[in-house]
Structures are given as structure tokens and as C-alpha cells.
Amino acid sequence: MTWVTIGLSVGILLSMAVVLSYVLGWANIKFHVDVDPRVVSIMDALPGANCGGCGYVGCGEYAEAVVLEGEAVSKCVVGGQNCAADVARIMGVEVGEALPYRPVVHCGAHYEDRLGRHEYRGEQRCSAANLVAGVQGCTYGCLGFGDCVRACQFDAIHVVDGLATVDYESCVGCGACAKACPRNIISITPFKSAQVLAVACSNKDRGKNVMTVCKVGCIGCGACARISDLFVLEDNLSTINYDAYTDECTLDVMKACEKCPRKRLVFVGIPTREDLEKSRDLKAPDVVEPDFKTTVDDTEWRG
């Protein structure tokens, strides 16, 4: 009786296997969707980070958009120019030189620079603390709980003494940190050179109000704007017209940096050897290496 039971079980399982194999084979043929081989080739060329920096959910969706919708071939910030060239070759098009995009943090205040800061015992996340009034006096500044750090897949941003700090040598410009910041004080900005000048503040309140909440915030005094046309006051905050910035503006820029009473004009990015040589004898805020960042409007190439 036992052998009969075993035999029946084996027979039933074999029958089910045959039937299921037939059904799966039929479904594979019936519902088969042809995939453009270029999509597969582009996916192989992409780094596979699935970071979302291109604006799509993952590399697969971006590859399909390039082939089927004519999306730009240079949107992979992780792969950079070499990846764009490979994708362009697959698509049979040319790709021009593209500016690298990097994050800029719109705040320069460490813990010791913040006034009116209170102990926060809630969930240690910026998204949660941002919903609570009175965590710190400045409602524009970095909260320092590291939502951006947790979002970064490349270990390129860290909270240093309460301030989000970018490591530009590791950063690929994927934009994850900017999306994670609940105060929108991190913007992904095109870097025209290895380093750019930045206004290390985002507070748009009047100067006297800024001084009550921060030791280093921009007070909108206009000293920089009186020295150079590159600087414009917008909503009590100094901004920089990067479209008009050239190497010929260096002298005026350095004078503006020296005149700024709060020292909010700083260089962010990775300085070249030539940059360091030029600034050796000039009085200006420290050249900030892969560490301190800030500035630039969220929607325009201004900072």
C-alpha cells in the first residue's frame, strides 16, 4: 500500500510539472514583448547605481526613455562624460561637453554659530524636527540630523558639528541629498570650474532679525553688490550671477569677499593648484576643500 501511495504521489507531481511547464511556455510565447537591443546595451553601459539622479526611478527606466522617448544621453550623473559618450555611441548621436552637477548647501552655521537653539528630543531626523517649532532660531538653516547622509549611496556627505558637509571628491551629483532635505537648502548646481563662489546662507529675513538667530548669517548689507555687479540683493539675501562670472572678475570677487562683514562669500568645491597659488597672498575667506558648502538659488543658476 505504501508503494502505491508513493507511486501515485510521484505520478501526480510529474503530471503537474508537465502541465505547468506547458503553461509557462505558452505564456512566455503569448505575452512575449520584444525589447529593443539598444535598451539592453545602454543598461550594460550604465553604472547600475539606480540612484535616481537622472530623474528616473532606475537605470532600466532611463535606458528605455533614451531609446523610446528620445531622452538626453547625458543624464547619468554617476557615469559622467564617459558613460554619456558610450550611450551616445549606442544611439548613434553626438554628445557635447556637459558641466558636472554637484550639491551646494545653503547654510554655513555650525552649532556654535546658532542662536536660540533648544534641545530636541523627538525623532532624530530632519524631516521630523522640521515640523517642530523652536528647534533652532533660524528657520532656514541646516537642522543637522543627517537625512541627507542616510540618503547618499556614495558616502559623500556628512554632518560636521551640526552642518551638512559635502565631500566633493566622492560626490557624483546624484541629487539624493537635495531630495532628502526637508528645508530644500541643498541644490544641485552645475560647476563651471573645480570650485565656485557661494553665498553661505539662505536666510531671507532682515539683517537685524538674522543677527538674533545666527552669528554668521548674511545680513543683506549690500557691501558685495556695491563692489561688483556680479552680486545682487534678492529678498535681503546676497546672490551671485554666475552667468556673468569670468576669470576677469577675480579681483572684484576677492574684494567683495574681504568686505563681507559676516564672511559669507566662500569658495566651494575642489581647488586646483593654480587656484591655491592665486589666492595665497589675498585676504579672503578660507578656500573650502571637499568640506564646507553653500549657495545658489534652487531654480536658477544664481547663488
Provide keyphrases for this structure:
303 residues; alpha+beta; two-stranded antiparallel sheet; 12% strand; elongated; disordered C terminus
CATH topology of the largest domain: Alpha-Beta Plaits
Q: What would the average pLDDT be, to the nearest integer?
A: 82
Q: Which CATH class of the largest domain?
A: Alpha Beta
N-to-C terminal Cα separation, in Å? 85 Å
Report the total helices. 11
How is the main sheet built? 2 strands, antiparallel
Architecture per CATH nomenclature, i.e. the level-2 architecture of the largest domain? 2-Layer Sandwich
Strand residue percentage: 5-15%
Low-pLDDT runs: 278-303
Q: Tell the overall outline.
A: elongated
Structural class: alpha+beta
Number of strands: 8
Approximate helicity band:
25-40%
Rg is 27 Å
Would you kindly provide a written description of the structure presented here, covering whatever features stand out?
- With 303 residues, the chain is α+β, with helices and mostly antiparallel strands.
- The protein has two domains: 37-91, Electron transport complex subunit B, putative Fe-S cluster (3-methyladenine DNA Glycosylase II, Chain A, domain 3), CATH 1.10.15; 101-278, Alpha-Beta Plaits.
- It is built from eleven helices and eight strands.
- It is elongated and about 95 Å long.
- Mean pLDDT is 82; it is low at 278-303.
